[in-house]
Specification:
The structure is a homodimer. The first copy, chain A, is of the alpha/beta class. Chain A has 13 helices and 14 strands. Chain A has a 9-stranded mixed β-sheet, sandwiched between helices. In chain A, helix 11 runs antiparallel to helix 12. At the A-B interface, strand 4 and helix 4 of A face strand 4 and helix 4 of B.
Chain lengths: 330, 330
């Protein structure tokens, strides 16, 4: 697209993941809802961390993972998010810049530490997340530059951004700038509990400010407060310009105007860790859109990227998604 | 053994590893000697890190990895090493304590940051290490308590400890306390370049203060300045009480008095990352000794632990070595 330097610009919480293997009994004993994301404060983070087994620190953050995927596909990504000027902040900044992503948000020099997500991975590969938002909470409208937003083909926002109070304003400002420049705005609902916290705001947002919606089954049924996926899909087809609904091993459903496309999931040899599955699906789909591929090809690219990230520990690709796409004839 | 609370007490540099995949060209372009450990200062660490790809942070440190292995075998381990009171120091302390290891060395409250090792892993699974010693350099005789040393069946020391100037004194003091209490002192030579830096001191140490020596082929030939492994082995048999020489895919050679035992290596399905292979070999061997197993059984336990750690990223076991030993009839 003329006038763009970036394929996708993501705005999200800048988080370092602490991944640790555990079992269902540990989740139950600590009252953690399997497969979901819970917000925890500093004290809770200290307490839970002390109970957890040894961990592995890897850069994460939902939209940041998606942008890492864009880069792996060979696209040009940019990311806006807030770290503190501490060791984990350095790790986050290094990791995302080292893969060619533009990341220039100023690190906070005071206030809480860089955000951490304590990710508990059970033997079935499912991840249960506990996020200490830390410095992410300081992302504000001051971190949004119109000129940068205008230069990205697609602006991508995570629903989790609704949790830090100031970030929501940054989110809305960025969406306004994007539309003013004639760009697309994409949103992921992030988590069913997150949808529950901000249902009405999200529904309004989808009607007014969002061109592309990503949601999984739990999120879309929570959004429309229905128990049946098909009912939710029907509603999404009416209220969203383009809705991309992921269904884990059932693949995805893409809804646009009166069109409906389904793309099956790929079989994975060994499901190791589902962390990042949704984030990387969005990478593939959005990369496809920037390349003006058909909606079903976009879905196939999403499914492919998701299948790579769930085959190993961590939420960012370990192999070149560009090579992987080629080897799959995409 | 009567009067002991710990099977093995390790003293070493307390390090967080930053593992990153790279290729041989990157090593060559940056003048890095493949498979070895180089010491780097803060500036060099910043420069190399900036050039590296995205990383994964995992607790490491040679002796610390060995003690983690002791714990995984079901033994009781203790570790002495110095971190700074910073985020990576918290990570190191959490990870080692969370597996039941006694770690009570006070963190430094000033001075350099917690030690980091930039570990570059090439496609053949070989690791090339660049260590910023940081807070490790502040380990001193004040961190050694006679009472704790006396309560461990075996004291285990890494040759890398010779690099931070003060740590050597701590090392010698600990060895004295161990022998005074009638305990065993084990040493690993750590790295061929490390041997080259301290050859004479190590040779004296082996004659006087060390009961069990661990070395790989490059280290033992460097120690005795010979090119042939068998010549080095002959020398070790004369000068060491018990020498355990590891030879990668050729397994290990155990030399004691006039005895010589050989244990073959185990076939590994996929060699992913050799980081920690020597450290975990020592875990198995030392754990066997604390259980009064035969020398060949000790070697088998060492080989088994090494085979586990090279089958995944990171230098600490991901599966229970106790279960693994049982499933191998050990």
């Amino acid at each position: 697209m003329t006038g763009t330097n970036f394929d996708v610009l993501g705005i999200g919480n800048a988080i370092v993941d602490v991944l640790s293997r555990t079992d269902d009994a540990f989740l139950a004993a600590n009252g953690l809802a399997k497969g979901s994301m819970a917000l925890i404060d500093d004290d809770q983070a200290v307490t839970l961390y002390a109970k957890m087994g040894p961990g592995v620190e890897i850069s994460g953050g939902s939209a940041a993972n998606t942008i890492a995927g864009i880069s792996s596909f060979g696209g040009k990504g940019a990311f806006i998010g807030k770290v503190r000027n501490d060791q984990l902040g350095d790790v986050f900044a290094h990791d995302i810049r080292s893969i060619g992503v533009d990341f220039s948000t100023a690190a906070a020099t005071s206030g809480p530490q860089t955000a951490r997500c304590l990710v508990l991975v059970t033997p079935d590969g499912e991840r249960t997340m506990n996020t200490f938002l830390g410095a992410s909470q300081n992302l504000s409208v001051d971190d949004i530059e119109e000129n940068q937003i205008a230069r990205a083909h697609t602006l991508y926002l995570e629903g989790y951004l609704w949790d830090p109070a100031q970030a929501k304003e940054a989110f809305l400002k960025a969406a306004k700038f994007a539309h003013k420049a004639g760009r697309q705005v994409a949103l992921t609902l992030s988590d069913a509990f997150c949808v529950d916290r901000y249902r009405d705001e999200f529904r309004n947002l989808l009607k007014q400010d969002v061109d592309i919606l990503f949601a999984n089954e739990a999120e879309i049924t929570s959004l429309y407060e229905v128990s049946d996926f098909e009912e939710a899909a029907k509603q999404a087809q009416i209220e969203c310009k383009l809705a991309v609904l992921t269904r884990s091993e059932k693949g995805c459903v893409i809804l646009k105007d009166n069109e409906r496309h389904e793309v099956p999931a790929l079989k994975v040899d060994e499901l190791v860790d589902t962390t990042g599955a949704g984030d990387l699906f969005a990478s593939g789909f959005l990369f496809g859109l920037t390349q003006e591929r058909s909606l079903t090809d976009c879905g196939r690219l999403g499914v492919l990227a998701a299948s790579e990230v769930i085959s190993h520990i961590g939420a960012r690709p370990e192999t070149s998604l560009n090579d992987l796409a080629k080897s799959h004839g995409l």
